[in-house]
Amino acid sequence: MATIHPFLWFNTDAEQARDFYLSVFKNSKALQTIEYTDWVSGTNKTVPHATFDFELEGLHLTALNAGPQPPFNERLSLYIETRDQAETDYYYEALTAGGGRAQPCGWLTDRYGVYWQVIPEILPRLSADPDREKANRVRQAMYGMRKIIIADLEPPMPARPDPHRNRNERRTLMTSLVDRKVIVVGGSSGIGLGVAEAALNGGAKVVIVGRSPEKLLAAERTLNAGRVTSVVADMTDEADVARLFDEVGPFDHLVSTAGTLPPGDPIGSTDMEAVRGFVDNKLIGAVMLSKHAVRTLKAGGSMTFTSGINKDRPPVPGGSVVSAIAGSFSYFARALALELAPTRVNVVSPGWVDTPMWDIVGEAKSSFFADMAARLPSRKIPTAADVAAAYLYLMESDFTTGETIRIDGGHNLI
Fold this sequence. Notes:
With 414 residues, the chain is α/β, with parallel strands linked by helices. It contains eleven helices and 15 strands.
């Protein structure tokens, strides 16, 4: 009796692909390996033509080393039917780890470019419901997902209009942070630490990112929550940024509060190396975060960046560089919100905030703050916890994108 099984053509990494798949699927085993007498072209007789047979959950597959080939595409995919959310989470996150990419509607590509679908067994049944209105709601919910979230497949029926309700009343639709994964770059101190704490209080799982292992460890102890982890990464190093998202896997929201002291010299004596360092840290860092975040950011998620009051009230002299960079974030977010829709992209623009960054001025901090507070319409300097509310709003608000939210106590008005 004839048999049929998938035969996958790789360039030189068929054996590595087989080993990866064996590590993902618990019920799996390696079968025979056949090495041929010739070599894959371009490998200087280091990689032989070879086939690697293996079995995943009872399915026989063959991987072939045979040199450059047209890339895999979605015309042929491997379909995993899962029993529940835990199994869906496991396979989706395991197969996208290490360089895979999340795709819409439960699809993904793994690190080798092979296409998979991870589909809960309930989804086809719900999609075939005789109640066509219900089935259509399920499909519409699915279209907004990457990894399938079973609990979100059956959105509630639209409420019937209440004739007694005030026509001018509006309700802002908000998405809960419960069990959502939030990455906070710069989360070891200052505003970032405040955002991490607020997200944890909202029920999120939080990953804090920074360059200092010591500061990250101290932040974890301060937060004292089982739902927080940390990753050491330098936002000016693209390899580090890529590794960050590989390690974290699929996530729901990205917040970046990372920053460094800006150059403050008059333009005629500007240190160009300091300018380049500041641009790399702030603007180029945000671009690199965005570039690599899109690989694993779930549909319906968000990115939130941080600018600041210097774009509105630049110090004179010496504020031209920081004003230009801070101001550029608004245009960056507007364009990126269009490019990545329905992913939402926004900016928070704080004024002065009582954080450790101000400790550099020493004892003068108290008098600076008192003088500024007296001038602000809010009459006080906010803490990181005060400012964190703006970031939570942007993560939760389904209808806010491409915006810059000022939370500066009216600083931009004076």
